[in-house]
Amino acid sequence: MLGSIYVTVAVAFTLTIGILNFLNFTIPAIFMITGVIAWAVAAHWLPLGVDGGLAWPLAFIIGIVAAVLASLIVERFTFRYLRIRHGDATEHAIPLVSSLGFLIIFENLVLIAFGSEAQAFPEKFKSDFYIGEIIIGLPQLMSLAISLLVVAFLSWILKTTNTGRALRAIAENPDTASLLGVDVRRIVPLVFLFSGLLCGVAGVLFVVNYSDVSPYMGEEVGTKAIAAMVLGGLGSIWGAIAGGLLVGLLEALSIHFFGADTVDVAVWGTLLIVLILKPSGLFGASRIGKGKL
Amino acid sequence: MAVPILQINCITKFFGGLKVLEDVSFDLMPGQRFGLIGPNGAGKTTVFNLLSGVYSVDSGSVILANQDITNLPIRKRIGLGLSRSFQNIRLMPHLSVLENVMMGQHCQANRITEMIKPIGWTKNNRWRQRALETIKDAGLEVDLNSTVSELPYGVRKKIEVVRALMSKPSVLMLDEPAAGLNPQETIELAGFLRGISDSNVTLLLVEHDMNFIHAICEKVVVLNFGLKIFEGTPKEVNRNKAVLEAYLGTSAMESSGVT
Lengths: 293, 259
Known about the structure:
The complex is a heterodimer.
Chain A: H1 3-20, H2 27-44, H3 56-86, H4 93-114, E1 119-120, E2 128-131, E3 134-137, H5 138-160, H6 162-172, H7 174-179, H8 184-210, E4 212-213, H9 217-232, H10 237-258, H11 263-277
Antiparallel strand pairs in A: 1-4, 2-3
Helix pairs in contact in A: 1-5, 1-8, 1-9, 1-10, 2-3, 2-4, 2-8, 2-9, 3-4, 3-8, 5-6, 5-8, 6-8, 9-10, 9-11, 10-11
Chain B: E1 6-15, E2 18-28, E3 33-37, H1 44-52, E4 59-64, E5 67-68, H2 74-80, E6 82-84, H3 97-103, H4 112-116, H5 126-137, H6 153-165, E7 171-175, H7 183-198, E8 202-206, H8 210-216, E9 219-224, E10 227-232, H9 234-239, H10 241-248, H11 250-256
Parallel strand pairs in B: 3-8, 3-9, 6-7, 7-8
Antiparallel strand pairs in B: 1-2, 1-4, 4-5, 9-10
């Protein structure tokens, strides 16, 4: 079940959209970078090319660090650059397109470095157990627990700390926030740091569950996570969590009852129906922006 | 003679080719209650925006407690003790009353530990404690967990003043604090502001309500078309010809027989 990964990536999307009103299209690539870097380090100790890879926990940490760095690079050259040049980031389309550019560049850099084929992560994480006739994968269960913990921790930071309050103030109104002395330029990278961290965690969870990495592993997860975020209600963290779990469940059910080919129809069809009936998403607030984050 | 807490020296501001302020100077003494008045478009709010750092001055300087703050960013000025409210209420509509008030402390949290320390962790956290005290002192009786957008205008107005107080200002600038308040609320506000001033906070008010100015201010500066045309006590203002002209127009004064 991919639900936990969708949850984590959907929350990463939600952070930049909820706080900065910026749909960060690079997120699937950042998710992918974690997996690929972790694989490269674990399998070959690349880029150093020393024989024999690094232990998997270290590889995962390096993968997550790479994801955070990539996310900060994106902040520097899409969001911040345009904000400095144009005074504000109200021109949402421009950073959106440049983040799309980063997605393609990151994917192709990985493609050039490691080729387009899927690579198998050296360590296998398989330890299923049974409850009656139902197979429960331990990695899957752990994934769900870890992703919910990380998300809960982040939303706790947003709720209780000075920084979190400043971030929510920026979400409400960046101009007023800076009039109150919030240093918007210094605090915005935090949003990207958090979302990079979430993508990193999601990338690690993906590797643990599927053992395969490829330059394109982020695309399907990324689009499904966007669907999950919109399904749950744009800009709401708990909506993103619910949406992610729902998309995972829809996938599992459609595979079970109608076969693997029907997955995308089921997910996107449900999304469209929900949006027609309730444009703010299933758990979106009735008033736009109310209870954001 | 005492040293002024805030000195405004010959500030000039252009918006494009339009000169909105020209060589405006005045000094605020510690604890003084100062009024800034003038017809619409005279440049009062521009003065506030220049003092608080929203705009930068084209020439002139601003000195706060012997420190030149002319080119400092907004947050540094707040940190040094210059705090303000806004003409159109600028609260975060979906944050709670308490959170809105606590936003006013943001500039006090300079160290990284203060930025990431959870506020709700201990019940008697000093940030929260101070917010609660200030709210209580201001006589703000409202559910602190309600979101601001649900509250009446007068209450929101007061929350803004309380928020501005949270940064422990030495100079508090209030942009039309009495606008939109009913007479009872205005009287309460005047008492509240006098209380603030008694604790040695200097007040600078932009206001249209002359009764309010008379009730509060010890000194008044009048702006018209970006120029300072008068500085004196509120009583003197009423007798000043240039001020009456600016408000009423020359022809109106002639026809009404004022000389």
